[in-house]
Amino acid sequence: MKPNNALTTRWSGIASVLRSELGISEPFIPPADVKNIEIKVQIKKYRAIWDTGATHSVITSEVVQGLSLRPVGVTIVHTANGQARQKQ
Question: What backbone phi and psi angles, to 5 degrees, belong to 65?
């Protein structure tokens, strides 16, 4: 069965927040000489809120800790209290 790589969510009326569950796993690149292979991966599930008008994306500290993510740089962010330097 081919995995579903699209996001489709339906509501019965106007939705004030677009929410869904998503799963994240370690990447897997099969060897070129293998035609049929069964893949077993551990998928970590998280809740997502989608902002269709956003210019940037953010994740929570729960996701950072759950996936053992590390910063790769620093950027300037603009908040209600002014500018701040944040790890990215």
Answer: -70, -40
pLDDT tens-digit profile of 57-84? 888 999 999 988 898 999 898 889 999 9
- Which segments of the chain are extended strands (E)? 18-24, 44-50, 74-79, 82-87
Residues 6+ away with beta carbon under 8 Å from 62: 46
Nearest partner of 41 among 22, 28, 31, judged by Cα: 28
Among the listed residues 87, 7, 14, 6, the one whose alpha carbon sits nearest the alpha carbon of residue 50: 7
Give the position of tokens 């019965």. Answer: 12
Q: How far apart are CA 46 and CA 62, in angstroms?
A: 9
Residue with tokens 């970590």: 44
Q: Encoding tokens for residue 27?
A: 């990447």
